[in-house]
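Sat 14:20. Reprocessing the chain from the morning session after the first attempt stalled halfway. Input below, unchanged.
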Amino acid sequence: MRRRLLVLVAATTTLVLVAFLVPLALLVRDVAADRAVQAATVEAQALTSLVATADAPSLALTVEHFDATSRFDVTVFLPGGERLGAEADRTPLVELGERGSSASAEADGGREIVFAVGGPDSSAGVIRTFVPDAELRQGVARAWLALAGLGIALLLVGLLVADRLGRRLVRGATDLAAVSHRLGRGELDARADPSAPSELGVVATALNRLAGRITDLLREERETIADLSHRVRTPLTTLRMDAEALPAGEQSERIVADVDAVDRAVTDVIGQARRRGTAPAGATTDAADVVRERAAFWAVLAEDTDRELTVDVAAGPLPVALARGDLEACVDALLGNVFAHTPHGTAFTVRLETREGGGARLVVADEGPGLPSGQTTGVLRRGVSGSGSSGLGLDIVRRTAEQSGGGVRLDSPAGGGLTVVVELGAG
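Finished this time. Tokens:
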């Protein structure tokens, strides 16, 4: 932007200076020529009375002296063919002057001026003055250099002013971009300078208002989630008391563990809501440990529903750039989808392997009906489901993978089944 502004100002200023200085330079040249011609004319006219009245010897001395002291070549042609003063040919213009006509014309190397001098009875002679080009252009070069210097100075001043203005505009735009990036990273306390020039100040004010509005909305969201969590904890407490009142045994312990898992999930939701809007601190989690733990948790339900579960987890640690709670939610969403969208008795596999370049690759494959044709990409969007559910499970998986610097890929073969490949970035 700054460079474009300088180019624009340079082009505009140059056009204006050319339109102004070129006619002025031509005028200076014409004025210098007119000045030289006028001086030669005045000097030649001073001899007119002498040519008409003086005797030949006196006239010869006067013309010789005049020619020697003048800046111009002065020649007097007498009627008898005699020539006084500077050497000069009898040009057509001189012949025209002998017939009584005064005139001037361009000649080789300068300008020729002829005055016809009339006597009492006939022509008394012709005065010829020659103005060389050097006299016609005297002072023109200096004037043109001065005009060129003035033009360059004006151009530099214009570029300097444009550079200062462009620097201020660019700095304002750069500051706006920097504030936008900070807001995008979650630094909601970032604010732009509203004193930026003209429209940039308006944009900065609008951006600050937007940042303030986002902060207010996030605060309201956190408060709403806190209220909801408080409401959920009351029935959870009742459910825990009912579970603990059951006869001691494996079933009672499993129900209590399930209630604890729900309680932890609610706590994680609250924690995530409170962290939202602040710069991420950056966490690292051992994916191998988390996948083993969650697979063991879901293995009980798999046994109850007659599902064959195969777990293949590479030897850890396999650090990934995620908080433990986020990774647990991702694994639970994947395994929960298997139970929710496949019939009882459907076998599935959980595999975790080292990812090239660091991180881990989590693969969950089932032998269920799979996804309808053409939906292997659309179901990753939030709220989109291929089986009528809320459509949030795979969206959680996608956002978690992207948060770590990875991604998600779905594969639904024609023979049935679904394979979800989650790339998790290194911690």
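Residues 382-391 have pLDDT under 50 and may be disordered.
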